[in-house]
Design goal:
This protein is α+β, with helices and mostly antiparallel strands. Among the domains are: 111 residues, no CATH class; 232 residues, Rossmann fold (3-Layer(aba) Sandwich), CATH 3.40.50.1110. Helix content is 27%, strand content 24%. It has 15 helices and 33 strands. The strands form eight sheets. Strands 8-18-19-17-16-20-30 form a seven-stranded antiparallel sheet. The chain has a seven-stranded mixed sheet with strand order 24-33-32-31-27-29-28. Strands 13-14-10-9-22 form a five-stranded mixed sheet, with no helix packed on it. The protein starts with 11 loop residues before the first strand and ends in a 10-residue tail after the last helix.
């Protein structure tokens, strides 16, 4: 046997041939030079510190992790299939500072994501049947190695370069009436100006604060939102305009919901953590239960993977018709077809878990924003509107600020008077037992979505048949799929909850169906079929792109519905206001509503009921499940589109 003498070697270093090692080094230097050159050519950019993995060779099931500090992507860990066979991957030298534009980083991310997507598509999917819905398909588990993660903060994020001293402070900020009058008349326009100041009573010079204003007369249960919302002038000042539609003493209230700095933080977390928290998937096998994390992506389980590295298998339950993704980590010795129940993880409900995604300064600002904070008035906080003969209310339709082309497709632009919503679009149906029964006679009503549309289901049934009571036990045991049949009037009312994601207690996967698939599968009979839809409340734990994808799947199913049944009316209900609970906050909901309007307004035989406006100013406050009087008013507007012939013709 030939032996090596001291000072000699056989062409190998650490298991690598010398010529191969030299090739790798040349490749690394060339790649590094090209990147630096491209950065110089692209000009100034945000400084990014990349701490790399060592130069190495990757096998088929290995991973690549690029660690990025001081960037809104925080710690970037991209996992995926690199290729078959040995491939050379060159990483930057540890702690080497470079300059890289967001576009370049996004290009890297897109490239790696594309590679990962191709890998998933290359997996051999073996579809088998099980005791789960047909769409909840079993597949060969996706095998992913997840690298250790380390939480950092996005200190270089352009929109979050702030200190608490410049944040809007409601105790020093104020509003005032522009050109006040001693007495106002019906249909006058009341305009107020809101000035944002910080805690040091210095005027802010930038906008972006999330404000809410309303006028109200609590003695007659009347209230209204600004005609065109709170207008941001991007200089620290805001205006709100109100058309005065009832007489008497009217109070003004202005609230700070979130400062611009909090909005910046919420936006960052939403966009760079598109799958926050976790859901529990309950697997059953031979009487044995195993709980495993689930979400809309296999790369969701960030918090629990910190400082660990392991190989996980994921069951891919992506819906084959809508493309809606859903993944669960596969428990050892369990098959993917043993997935039986789903529930929101207790970790996801914990506000402290959500707060870990924010910097210390952001956390402090968030904690101050847990409740609406009222902005002080400058001198006057109420006005008086005089009575004109016997007229005490007016829609002021001749001078309305509304765009008719838009309001034809959006119900609920209006105001409250004596606890009744006065629509500015059209007169509404009085939601009495007689009117609702007559409107829905010989109809099938399909209510699809979340628990807020289930409130409509419950109200309709108990109005048509007041003696019929839906017990709490029924709501607990059958809360995701309920049907009611009124044989006397030939009315069928059906409620089904949408599928993943769903923030709830344990429920069977058999009870969950995607809204688009239900619209495609349920029969439609022209005007004798009605759809009421509601999605949004469970989607604040995802990002805008994901929610838009879900909406577009529903939109396509509505188009197919109208191809086979053109006269079937579809009413889409927006999300409503709620008490802020971490990631279930009103700004996230408001943003989702904006997408909902974009996708559905203007579709033939589709009406969007903006219940956000109806819950915004009501005296009962902001609740995810509004009080019964609000539900009654919501349905009054919806049914006025279903049965316009039954609507009262008198105008105010």
């Amino acid at each position: 046997m030939k032996t090596l003498q001291r000072g000699h070697f056989n062409g190998h270093i650490c298991g690598l041939k010398l010529d191969r090692l030299i090739g790798l080094m040349i490749f690394a230097l060339f790649g590094y030079s090209m990147i630096i050159l491209s950065m110089k050519l692209t000009g100034f950019a945000i400084p990014i510190e990349i701490k790399s993995i060592a130069m190495k060779q990757l096998r088929q099931e290995d991973y690549v992790a690029i660690s990025v500090d001081n960037h809104p992507l925080m710690e970037l860990a991209i996992n995926g299939h690199i290729g078959t066979g040995n491939e050379q991957v060159v990483a930057f030298e540890r702690n080497k500072s470079i300059e890289m534009k967001n576009e370049q980083i996004n290009g890297i991310i897109d490239g790696i994501n594309k590679s990962h997507k191709q890998h998933l598509q290359q997996q051999n999917m073996s579809i088998t049947s099980g005791e789960i819905p047909a769409w909840l398909m079993n597949s060969s588990p996706v095998r992913i190695k997840i690298p250790p993660l380390r939480t950092t903060y996005a200190k270089a994020f352009a929109d979050f370069n702030t200190t608490s001293s410049v944040t809007m402070d409601p105790s020093t900020s104020f509003y005032r009436i522009i050109n006040p009058k001693p007495i106002y008349s019906l249909c006058d326009v009341l305009e107020i100006q809101i000035m944002a100041l910080d805690k040091n009573k210095m005027y802010k010079t930038t906008g972006g604060d999330y404000l809410f204003a309303k006028i109200h007369s609590n003695d007659i249960l009347a209230s209204a939102n600004p005609e065109d919302g709170v207008i941001d002038h991007n200089n620290g000042s805001y205006t709100a305009r109100f058309k005065l539609r009832w007489t008497g003493r009217i109070s003004i209230s202005v609230f700070l919901i979130y400062s611009s700095e909090v909005i910046s933080a919420l936006r960052r977390v939403r966009d760079y953590y598109p799958a926050r928290g976790a859901f529990d998937g309950i697997f059953w096998k031979d009487g044995i239960k195993k709980v495993s994390p689930c979400h809309v992506t296999p790369l969701f389980y960030v918090k629990s993977l910190e400082n660990t590295s392991y190989i996980a298998e994921f069951c891919n339950y992506t819906d084959p018709l809508t493309g809606a993704p859903w993944f669960c980590a596969k428990p050892a010795s369990f098959t993917c077809s043993s997935y039986r129940y789903t529930a929101a993880s207790t970790n996801m409900r914990d506000k402290d878990t959500f707060e870990t995604l924010f910097s210390p300064l952001e956390k402090n600002l968030l904690r101050k924003s847990t409740k609406m904070q009222e902005v002080n008035s400058r001198r006057v906080s109420s006005i008086h509107v005089k009575s004109e003969s016997s007229i005490t209310i007016s829609r002021c339709m001749k001078n309305t600020l509304l765009d008719k082309s838009v309001t034809d497709h959006i119900g609920t632009t209006g105001f409250y008077f004596k606890d009744t919503w006065i629509s500015l679009n059209r007169p509404t149906l009085v939601p009495s037992q007689r009117n609702i029964t007559q409107c829905l006679k010989d109809k099938t009503v399909n209510l699809l979505g979340d628990s807020t549309i289930r409130q409509w289901f419950k109200f309709l049934i108990q109005t048509i048949e007041p003696k019929y009571a839906i017990s709490k036990q029924i709501l607990q045991t059958a809360r995701f799929s309920m049907d009611h049949w009124d044989n006397r009037h030939n009315i069928s009312i059906n409620y089904h909850h949408h599928a993943f994601p769903i923030v709830t207690m344990y429920t069977s996967t058999n009870d969950l169906h995607y809204v688009a698939n239900m619209i495609d599968s349920l029969p439609a009979d022209g005007v004798h079929t009605v759809y009421f839809l509601s999605v949004g409340a469970h989607f604040t734990i995802t990002d805008m792109k994901f929610f838009r994808g879900r909406l577009r799947a529903i939109k396509r199913s509505i188009v197919r519905l109208h191809e086979r049944s053109p006269d079937t009316m579809v009413v889409v209900r927006s999300a409503n206001t709620r008490k802020d609970e971490g990631q279930y906050n009103n700004w996230y909901h408001d943003q989702l509503n904006s997408l909902l309007f974009e996708e559905f307004v203007g579709l033939n035989n589709v009406v969007v009921i903006d219940v956000w406006s109806m819950t915004l100013s009501h005296y009962s406050g902001w609740n995810i499940h509004p009080v019964n009087v609000v539900v009654r008013n919501e349905l009054a507007v919806a049914l006025s589109y279903i049965c316009p012939d039954l609507v009262l013709t008198e105008h105010v």
